[in-house]
TrEMBL record:
Pfam families: Aminotran_5. Belongs to the class-V pyridoxal-phosphate-dependent aminotransferase family. Csd subfamily. One of its GO terms (molecular function) is pyridoxal phosphate binding. Its EC number is 2.8.1.7. This is cysteine desulfurase. The keyword Transferase applies. The lineage of its organism: Bacteria, Pseudomonadati, Verrucomicrobiota, Verrucomicrobiia, Verrucomicrobiales. Its cofactor is pyridoxal 5'-phosphate. NCBIfam families: sufS. PANTHER family: CYSTEINE DESULFURASE, CYSTEINE DESULFURASE 1, CHLOROPLASTIC. It catalyses: (sulfur carrier)-H + L-cysteine = (sulfur carrier)-SH + L-alanine. It is an enzyme of class 2 (transferase).
Length: 405
């Protein structure tokens, strides 16, 4: 059992008031708020150990290097990676997917006539980098369709795999609908068809335990800021054999072994993919955020959020003309539309009542097109949300629906 009321004390921003009302923050799929443990780790880093890493021979450089590499260790343990060498610090999920797509483009592993398979549920950041790869390599994109309930069509997926795509990329949890995809099963099928597999875990990271060895994929990317860490942080995990087989995507300091004007040799993993001074404080605070999440417990977090989502769905279902998107066993987000009410107008009224939600296409325009809509209203949940937040959401949406109806 999770005690959200007391956990809220770890998040100073939650005591903000909006238009004289207490803030009800339900935009967690966009970004989460940061606990004191993370804010303190940031401050401690700059007050006590700030220095550039790896190169310096002095005291502070050693402390900062130890802190950054300890953070990599924490991430590796959190992901159950075989080695910290498989953990590459990035600026976010988008960065990790682009790194993979650009390195694969340069690798020569994907060429003219090859196929890349993604799903209808993808965020633009798991679509556009693959379109760019296709443009440059002559490969083409295939799309796994989804059912009316927002779950992926697994029969169609099995059929598409018969075309032997070189790469399959899909999200674990949809940011737009909260659909939870069966990643272990989908990955096993893709591997059996001979594909490389990338999991977009941006929305899974705050809600689910992640075990990259149990999943069996080749890559997994997520953003720190959706799991209580600062913006500008993230991780790309890659299987050692695959990371060793593809070239780096950026050149510079740190990623080299030896440079002459004639030839450069690249550094070992993970440094080969970390050109330039990394976000040192970002890596350290990301680890602090994962420690925080683990101290609360991901099973307890999931259970707590599931209860909130279900009670929000029950409360909102009393509204005439409401439609929910995504299957009933959704995680993280509850997406809906009300007949005759524009999501933008609804979001604006909710804001006036202190309720922060997201409206629009959620960076999933092809998914919106599939459902013939321009957007939805999305309430998304975190460990610090409470039944009071749900009650405030339901009452505000009911009021707004009457005003706009
Ligand atoms: N994939 C999914 C499923 C997401 O929800 C997001 C963020 N909304 C991203 C990728 C991109 O993450 P970022 O903008 O933090 O790089």
């Amino acid at each position: 059992m999770l005690d959200a009321a007391s956990l809220r004390r770890d998040f100073p921003i939650l005591s903000t008031t909006v238009n004289g009302r207490p803030l009800v923050y339900l935009d967690n799929a966009a970004t989460t708020q940061k606990p004191l443990a993370v804010l303190d780790a940031s401050r401690r880093y700059y007050e006590e150990t700030n220095s550039n890493i790896h190169r310096g021979a002095h005291f502070l450089a050693r402390l900062a290097t130890e802190g950054f590499e300890a953070a990599r260790h924490t991430v590796a343990t959190h992901l159950h990676a075989e080695s910290p060498d498989e953990v590459i610090f990035t600026s976010g999920c988008t960065d990790g997917i682009n790194l993979t797509a650009i390195s694969l483009t340069r690798s020569g592993l994907i060429g003219p006539g090859d196929k890349v398979l993604i799903s209808t549920l993808e965020h633009h950041s798991n679509i556009v980098p693959w379109q760019m790869l296709c443009e440059q390599t002559g490969a083409s994109l295939l799309i796994i369709p989804c059912h009316e309930d927002g779950s992926l069509d697994q029969d169609a997926y099995a059929k598409l795999l018969e075309q032997q795509p070189k790469l399959v990329a899909f999200n674990w949890i949809s940011n737009a609908f909260g659909t939870v995809n069966p990643v272990v099963d989908m990955t096993a099928k893709a591997k059996a068809a001979g594909a490389l597999v990338l999991i977009d875990a941006a929305q899974a990271a705050p809600h689910l335990k992640m075990d990259v060895q149990a999943i069996g994929s080749d890559f997994l990317a997520f953003s720190g800021h959706k799991v209580y860490a600062p913006t500008g942080t993230g991780v790309l995990w890659g299987k050692r054999s695959v990371l060793e087989a593809i070239p780096p995507y950026r050149g510079g300091g740190e990623m080299i072994k030896e440079v002459t004007f004639e030839k450069t040799t690249y550094n070992d993993l993970p440094f080969k993919f970390e050109a330039g001074t990394p976000n040192i404080e970002g890596g350290i605070t990301l680890a602090a955020a994962l420690d925080y999440v683990n101290s609360v417990g991901l099973d307890a977090i999931r259970e707590h959020e599931t209860k909130l989502i279900q009670s929000a769905a029950t409360g909102l279902s009393e509204i005439d003309g409401i439609r929910f998107y995504g299957p009933d066993d959704r995680a993280g987000a509850l997406s809906f539309a009300i007949k005759g009410v524009h999501h933008y107008d609804l979001g604006t009224l909710l804001d006036q009542m202190g309720v922060a939600v997201r409206t629009g296409h959620h960076c999933c325009q092809p998914l919106m097109a599939r459902f013939g809509i321009t957007g939805t209203t999305r309430a998304s949940f975190a460990l610090y949300n409470t039944e009071e937040d749900v009650a405030a959401l339901v009452s505000a949406v009911k009021k707004a629906a009457v005003m706009l109806g």
